[in-house]
Structures are given as C-alpha cells and as structure tokens.
Amino acid sequence: MPNVQHSDQKTGDIAALLLAHYAVHARDLPWRKRPGQGWPDPYHVWLSEIMLQQTTVMAVMPYFARFTDRWKNFAELAACDDADLMAAWAGLGYYARARNLLKCARTVVSEHGGELPQSEDALKKLPGIGPYTAAAIAAIAFGQRAVVVDANIERVVSRLFALSTPLPQAKPEISALMDRITPADRAGDFAQAMMDLGAGICSVKAPACDRCPLADGCQARQDGNPEAYPVKQPKKARPVRKGTAYWIRRGDKVWLVKRKDSGMLAAMRALPDDGWNAKSDGNMCPPFPAKWEQRLPAITHIFSHFSLELQVAVTAWPHGPNPPLEGEWWDVNSLDKAGLPTLFIKATKVALASGER
DNA sequence: CAAACGTGGGT
DNA sequence: TACCCAAGTTT
C-alpha cells in the first residue's frame, strides 16, 4: 500500500473540491443529457461507455449521434441486422465491441425486459461490460456508489498520491485509493469529474496544474514531477507485416467478402486478402488465378499490435459466372455504405485513384 | 496473465 | 517522423 499520510479529512476534501470544480467546468456531452430532472438515459450511458472504451470523445461523437438517431433504445438495437450494426460501427475500431453490443442489447431484451439491470454484478455479466463499464454505468446511470477506475483516473490518482508502483501492478492500489476518495453520494458525477480532469487538465503531457482544483493536495505536484506518473512497464515493439488485398473489378462493381467471425476485423465486410496477420506475412497467393496487376503504392496501416504494409493487386473479372470466392458485388460509387474497416477504405482509395479503369 | 484487439489525434 | 495514448474486455 502507499504511504498513507492523508487523513480521511484530507481525502474527503478531494471529492468536495472536485465536484465544485465540475459544477462549473463539466464538459457538455450528449450522453450526459438528463431527460427532465432525473438521470441520463441508461441506454445512452451504456452505449457511450462501450463506444468510449479505448476511444476518444472526439472519435465517438458522430457515431453516438448516428446510433441514437437510428436505434433509440435496447429493443430497437436488438432488432437490427448484424450486418447493419457492423457497418454502422465501421471506422470506430475494436470491432468485438460491436458484436458484444448487439449480444448485450439482445440479452437485455430477452432476459431483463428491455431495461439494463442496475447492480454492478448483474451489469458485469453482460457481454462487453467489464469492471470499469459496470461501475461506470451503476454510478452514472443509476446513482449507485461504485468505484470507477479508467486510464484517466489511474493517472490522476497516481499523481495525487505519487505512486511509484508501475502499472498494471498498481491497479489494486489505485482502486483502493479511488475507493477511499469516492463520496457516498454523487459517485457518478465524481467519476466523470475525475475523467474530465484527466482529459483536460491532468493530461499525460504538460498537465495544467495551475488550473487544477486538486493541485494543493497533489503529491506529484508538490514533488514537481507530475509527468513522471503513472509509472508504466515498457511496452513491446510492434512488428511490421506485409500483406496483399485483392481488388476484383467488373464494370462499376467490386467483389467484397465477409471476414470470419473471430480474430482481426471479425465479421466485417472487406476486400479478399492473402492471409496476412499479426504473426506472419501474407502468402502472396491470389484467391484464384487471373491476370493480376500489382503496381499500386503500398498502404501502411498501424494496428494496435503490428503494422501492415498492404499491397493492392487488381484484376478485371469478365461478365458471366462470379469469382470462385464467397462474396458479393458492390457498387464502387457507394463503397462508403459497405462498412469497410479503415484499412480497406485506404485500399479502395488506392485502387480507385490508380485510374484503375 | 499477457496478448489480442483499431483508429486517429497529439507531441 | 516516430511514438504515445485513449471512458477496456476477452481469452
């Protein structure tokens, strides 16, 4: 445990100071809107929390707006087609979230009468909801006292108490400290205030301590080295892989496939490829023999755990039978509606820009 | 438990 | 440019 030189009195001040600051400086985010006087719509809280996992507020905004406009509650979302959902999620990344989102909505409808359960335990049993999200929903949507810990809060707490233990080993310590400073009432506002603080003031680089309501009680600030926290374990290098995608054109159509249901970009619509993955290069074998042109500029795409140098090979497919490869013709003029992951969006742009007939 | 799992903005 | 990181969960 950390050197506990903070009295309960002092840690109690943290919540009061932060909530007062939050009353004035809270970000105005769409999922925080409260219908009437009460709490925000739990469906909105849940949807935003899933979208915000490892994803910035800026990236989430347009997706949240489109999703809530199109699917207004759990029942509507549960009833949608899987392919439509995946296409709507395209570009946001971490596609397992989209598959779990749908599973979760369907479970909420079939087993919980279309309303989210309110207890942290019950929430954690739902697909896509882990420790963080369960606590966040319980606190933010249902007013329960839950201890919320995300990467922002890890950073803020690490600095407040100048924790020398590196992450992820420090997680239990951070949870215990967050538990200690979380108020009995307004735990949800407190969590959001901590996250706002981490996002806007207690930033990774160059924290704005002069604007921080907790600066006086911050150990790292007193020590003059807030940027040194949180201490983290070094990360692994990112390998570079090579692969090929295949652009099969017939008139104004291109042949798209659906990726398998597990692994990278699972269940997403895509261009055919040569089997590249995080562990190995693609085999450079086209899906079928044809006259393949392969002189387009390579694409570099950075995934979380490897980089990919992707070559695009092009062929023209004659009218008549379809290519011997499960898939569908897609109009090249409406590729934006295909729901392609960003990697393949880049590939389609290269193919089209090449003046490819 | 460590690794898998996307993407784009910031520095 | 290169590297860091984000409202984490699942296996």
Automatic annotation (TrEMBL):
Keywords on record: 4Fe-4S, DNA damage, DNA repair, Glycosidase, Hydrolase, Iron, Iron-sulfur, Metal-binding
Membrane-crossing residue ranges in chain numbering: none
Entry-linked Gene3D superfamilies: Helix-hairpin-Helix base-excision DNA repair enzymes (C-terminal), Hypothetical protein, domain 2, Nucleoside Triphosphate Pyrophosphohydrolase
Cofactor note: Binds 1 [4Fe-4S] cluster.
Enzyme class: hydrolase
Family: Belongs to the Nth/MutY family.
UniProt protein name: Adenine DNA glycosylase
Organism: Sphingorhabdus contaminans
